[in-house]
């Protein structure tokens, strides 16, 4: 897994090529504030080849954060991440690898009948209890996540991951109460605490799409304060001295700035945004959709673009995301080497300072 020595040596190798705040702390590690995502793309050999080349290029250019999930591209993204980490001229202990579990993954390709596939591969063998399913495709039961983590480690070819997320737990709110979902998370966290103690992961977190950035009362809302509380309870249940709950992932970009603007989370002195809560709680924040799955590469609002440094719209969009308070790393999907070069180039510019960032919203 990534180590303090390995990541700081990586920073020493590449740091002079980037702006002052490009490398940031993630607990005791040094990680790049531009990370590589692997969500988009068809589950084909051709896309695998493109990702393998792109990830290798990123790792050898100053990006040491790679994010994936077992369901991305029918498990192919995890597999190609593992191959690239092994192929790149970079030591494993310099690379921060994150993956996720929660959505039932296909294997290699999309089946003709997804419902039949889920029944035959997951329900009938007893890997998933039908009552634990949401939307026929999502489960966060401890035994399921346990098996999924094992499969992820096999796909990646790694002994352990640096960060393991429970993936979009708000999906479960479609079929059960909010309190029941908190209970589910506490059970899931307890198992992840046990896996952390066994050395299979260094830290865990929650990757969300809507949960932490929507107002209270929204159907998808989850309290980050309560989620963190359940993680502390899970650590005690697992007899760990401290929780390994260390990160959240949420979308953040020029058009999706709710994590900064919506004060939906209960802080010590009143409601605050998810970003401020995470910052004050000492949680690492990884932003997804940093360029809006490519849309922001076509252009930014003029009044925002003029405040940002960068040679291209994509670079300015990335620098907006990593300018937000408390952000550890902003993830950008890229399966094209030229896009990787462009994205890495964003780190050669300084992000906005706090006052300039706040001014965007005035």
By DSSP (H or I, 4+ residues per run), the number of helices equals 13
Q: List low-pLDDT spans.
A: none
**Shape summary:** globular
CA radius of gyration is: 19 Å
| Helicity, as a percent range | 25-40%
Physical arrangement of strands within the biggest beta sheet:
3-4-5-6-7-8-11-12
Strand share of the residues? Answer: 15-25%
What gap, in angstroms, lies between the N and C termini? 42 Å
How many beta-strand runs? 12
Mean pLDDT: 96
The secondary-structure class comes to alpha/beta
Major sheet: size, sense and barrel closure?
A: 8 strands, parallel, barrel
Helix and strand element order = HEEEHEHEHHEHEHEHEEHEHHEHH
Lay out the secondary structure.
Layout: H1 4-14, E1 23-26, E2 29-32, E3 34-37, H2 45-59, E4 65-67, H3 76-87, E5 96-101, H4 114-123, H5 142-156, E6 163-167, H6 178-197, E7 204-207, H7 224-237, E8 245-251, H8 258-261, E9 265-267, E10 270-272, H9 274-281, E11 284-288, H10 302-305, H11 313-321, E12 327-333, H12 337-346, H13 354-359
Parallel strand pairs: 3-4, 3-12, 4-5, 5-6, 6-7, 7-8, 8-11, 11-12
Antiparallel strand pairs: 1-2, 9-10
Helix pairs in contact: 2-3, 2-12, 3-5, 5-6, 6-7, 11-12
């Amino acid at each position: 897994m990534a180590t303090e020595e390995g990541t700081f040596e990586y920073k020493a190798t590449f740091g002079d090529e980037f702006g002052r705040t490009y490398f940031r702390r993630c607990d005791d590690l040094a990680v790049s504030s531009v990370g590589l995502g692997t969500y988009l793309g068809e589950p084909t050999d051709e896309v695998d080849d493109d990702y393998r080349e792109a990830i290798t290029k990123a790792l050898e250019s100053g990006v040491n954060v790679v994010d994936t999930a077992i369901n991305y591209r029918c498990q192919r993204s995890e597999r190609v991440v593992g191959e690239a980490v092994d192929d790149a001229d970079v030591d494993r202990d310099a690379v921060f690898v994150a993956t996720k579990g929660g959505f039932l993954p296909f294997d290699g390709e999309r089946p003709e009948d997804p419902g039949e596939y889920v029944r035959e591969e997951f329900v009938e063998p007893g890997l998933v209890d039908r009552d634990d399913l949401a939307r026929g495709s999502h489960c966060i039961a401890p035994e399921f996540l346990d098996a999924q983590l094992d499969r992820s480690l096999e796909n990646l070819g790694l002994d352990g991951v640096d960060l393991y997320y429970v993936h979009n737990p708000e999906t479960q709110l479609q079929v059960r109460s909010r309190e029941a979902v908190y209970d589910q998370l506490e059970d899931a966290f307890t198992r992840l605490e046990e896996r952390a103690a066994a050395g299979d992961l260094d830290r865990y977190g929650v990757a969300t799409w809507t949960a932490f950035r929507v107002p209270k009362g929204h159907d998808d809302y989850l309290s980050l304060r309560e989620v963190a509380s359940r993680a502390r309870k899970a650590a005690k249940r697992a007899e760990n001295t401290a929780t390994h709950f260390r990160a959240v992932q949420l979308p953040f970009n020029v058009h999706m700035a709710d994590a900064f603007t919506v004060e939906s989370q209960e802080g010590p002195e009143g409601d605050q945004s998810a970003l401020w809560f995470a910052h004050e709680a000492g949680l690492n924040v990884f932003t997804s959709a940093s360029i809006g799955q490519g849309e922001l590469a076509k252009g930014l609002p003029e009044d925002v673009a003029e405040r940002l440094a960068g040679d291209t719209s994509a670079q300015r969009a990335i620098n907006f995301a990593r300018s937000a308070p408390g952000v550890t790393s902003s993830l950008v999907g890229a399966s094209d080497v030229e896009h990787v070069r462009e994205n890495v180039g964003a780190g050669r510019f300084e992000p906005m300072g706090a006052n300039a960032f706040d001014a965007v919203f005035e």
